[in-house]
Amino acid sequence: MRKKTCPVRIKAAGEQDGTEDGVFEAIVAAYNLDSVGDKIVPGAFADTLAEWKASGDPIPVLWSHMSHDPDYHIGYVEDAEERDEGLWVRARIDLDEPKASKVYKLLKGRRVRQFSFAYDIQEGGWIEKTDGEDGSDGYYELRKLKLYEVGPTLIGANQETELLTVKNPPADTPPRPAPEARPSVKAGRTLSAKNETALRDALAKIAESTDAIETVLSSLDSGDEDKSTGPASTPPAPSAEAPSTAASSALLRASLALLDAESQPLTA
């Protein structure tokens, strides 16, 4: 899942702008060339907006993509459509929630003036520059996008967004590939079925090896006890640095559990 942010001008936020208290309007994606070399094509959101409408579910409004914290799920989109300037939304903030209410106050005070949206590319391609076009070497055209969420953020990328608009990649965004290598679709942060199967097969083999090791260690312990002939032949105390059979087994199984946990699918 990718993210874009852009500086915006709030079109309306609250009763002083002619909307209900807790409601704002913004352009959250613009059609101009942005600072990372992308250009959204008008109509890129048509299918995804239709899918959201058909589902009956609202598009979430998040503060700065913080999906991991329920407190930052600050509202929902009541209406959305593509306009000449870009993707327009009207959204309602949960004013009964402290963090959501704080964000709304920042919006009304114009102290936060940028928006962002999370998306995947379903169709796209590199466009070579022609005379008279923006972009030094060309740009990546975003033709069809899948929208996941929108929301205000402090830092953005497209200077044409307004509160009506937004865009800018986060600091940890990886370098963009060369034009010929740029993918048309961005995969989510999940293990492929093939890789997950291979990892689980490896875990199963490690588990079998662990059982075999436990058997060998147990037999060695039993053999040492059989060799003891009486009080005079007291076995040496085990070294503090040498783990017992039980400790070795516990360590191996803890490592397996950790590997298994790390093999679970990740969410973006």
UniProtKB/TrEMBL annotation:
Keywords in alphabetical order: Hydrolase, Protease, Viral release from host cell
Annotated GO biological process: proteolysis
InterPro entries listed in its UniProt record: Peptidase_S78_dom, Prohead_protease
Domain of life: Bacteria
Domain Prohead serine protease as annotated: residue spans: 24-164
Chain intervals for the UniProt region annotation (Disordered): 160-193, 216-248
Keyword field contains Transcription regulation: no
Transmembrane segments: none
Matches recorded under NCBIfam families: proheadase_HK97
UniProt-recorded name of the protein: Prohead serine protease domain-containing protein
